[in-house]
UniProtKB/TrEMBL annotation:
Belongs to the glycosyl hydrolase 17 family. Gene3D superfamilies: Glycosidases (3.20.20.80). The lineage of its organism: Eukaryota, Viridiplantae, Streptophyta, Embryophyta, Tracheophyta. It holds the Pfam family Glyco_hydro_17. This is Glucan endo-1,3-beta-D-glucosidase. SUPFAM superfamilies: (Trans)glycosidases. One of its GO terms (molecular function) is glucan endo-1,3-beta-D-glucosidase activity.
Amino acid sequence: MGIPRIIWSIYSTALLVSVLTAVPASVSAIGVCYGRLGNNLPQPGEVVNLYKANKIGSMRIYDPNQEVLQALRGSNIQLVVDVPNENLQSLASDPSAASKWVQTNVVAFRTSVSFRYIAVGNEVIPGGLAQYVLPAMQNVQKAVSSAGLQNQIKVSTSVATIVLGTSYPPSAGAFSSAAQTHMNPIVQFLARNGAPLLVNVYPYFSYRDNRNQISASYALFTSTEVVVKDGQFGYRNLFDAMVDAVYAAMEKVGGSNVAIVVSESGWPSAGDFAATIENAKTYNQNLIRHVGRGTPRKSGAPIETYIFAMFNENQKNPELEKHFGLFNPNKQPVYPISFA
């Protein structure tokens, strides 16, 4: 996660504060992001063992670090691997560079690492590098197909909810004018290839920045009542509303069959407003319990979701960004949480 750029429409001041016990859901929908911006983190082999010990079946990594890929061999952990943003231009302009990237970082490990998605860029759209995302995706897709892996590994990109220009109510979700030039053809690419859109979803930032309009219970999955009524759909939590707004935006540009994978979501335990251990534990535990249920718009369809992040990372900035971890660098949990 870079510096969050979550933009969310302001909700009614009538938002309610109350408590809900989430219904347990299948843990198969949950993974955890393994960021490495720290100088005191465990070695990759220890990290893989920590995933296994906690029954975390999926991992996202932000670059194809060879030591991490080696540690993942034979682990059966499902993997999302990013093409770093700094590589987008070269992979977009040179198909041979994309082929080499796939050969070196995917094909070389294909027999012993369970690749699931390649995320071509993280939170690039809209922005200066946005023009390179689709061409890079296309070249990576060609390389994956040439290796015969197109049915096993799906090529996508990871976006923040800043791609939305309209987000409230969720059914009105639409891409912003700045994003739609890039998002419309990307959604159509995903539809053609049977790939999901990866979306970073952070109710925390929407709540922090609109705390007078959004209740803590709506952000933390603890509301007992419908807070936002949107036609036939009722929303008791902000996470579902944000995800469904992206679904609505994709439907408007021919992506009604494109699934969403939540490639990041989490809550900080220190460093800013409402960033407490208790809130972080509440959000992440409720997220784990919730995602197997789907959203009102996609009821019953589990939302594959990756919690950000595995560790508190001491080289991230600003201060808040250091405190999203489920675990401390010594491998002890920041707070108790169950994936079972």
